[in-house]
Amino acid sequence: MIEVLISVVLISFGVLSLLTLLPSGWRLSARSDMLGRAAGILQGELERNEAWIMNEKNQVTPVPKTGSSPPPFYASGRKPPLPPLPGDIPYGVTTEIEELGGGIGGWRVRVRVTWPGNPTGITESVIVTRQLFFAQ
User: Is the separation of the CB atoms in 50 and 124 below 8 Å?
Assistant: First the structure.
């Protein structure tokens, strides 16, 4: 009887220990989900700007860094006035385009994606030059 009582206490202690890990697991899962969505948004924005600049028929105007907060961007792609879908999180997407000096004919595109709870977000940049075969 004492052995059964000890085993029940030990199992109860183990189950309670596992339950204390659930909130941190949920937080890490949510952070991973937000980071994955932000990475997808960042990559899409970089590719869109890169394709625009590579086409020599398009006029490229430098976009300086601004101090204002960007309008919300939702992972579902919905934009105001449409309401966000359930579970959509407002991401902030800031794009800077600067012309490189020295007669290179290139531009640096820098994209930053932020989300609630992470004001620094993630940032990536790419250097783009004109490409003849991208002209349409």
Answer: no
* DSSP assignment letter at 82: S
Rama region for 117: left / alpha / beta (φ>0; ψ in -120 to 50; rest): left
Question: What is the model's pTM?
Answer: 0.77
Comparing 131 with 16, the larger pLDDT belongs to: 16
What is the maximal distance between C-alpha atoms in the chain? 87
Q: Is the dihedral of CA 37, 38, 39, 44 positive or negative?
A: positive
Residues for the chain: how many in total? 136
Task: Give the contacts of 40 (CB within 8 A, at least 6 positions apart).
Answer: 75
- Taking 3-state DSSP, the helix, strand and coil percentages for the chain, each rounded to the nearest 5, stand at 40, 30, 30
- Reported confidence tier of residue 122, pLDDT bands at 50, 70, 90: very high
pLDDT over threshold 70, residue 136: no
Please give the Cα distance from 43 to 29 (Å, whole number): 21
Domain boundaries, the chain: 2-134
Q: How far apart are the first and last CA of the chain?
A: 83
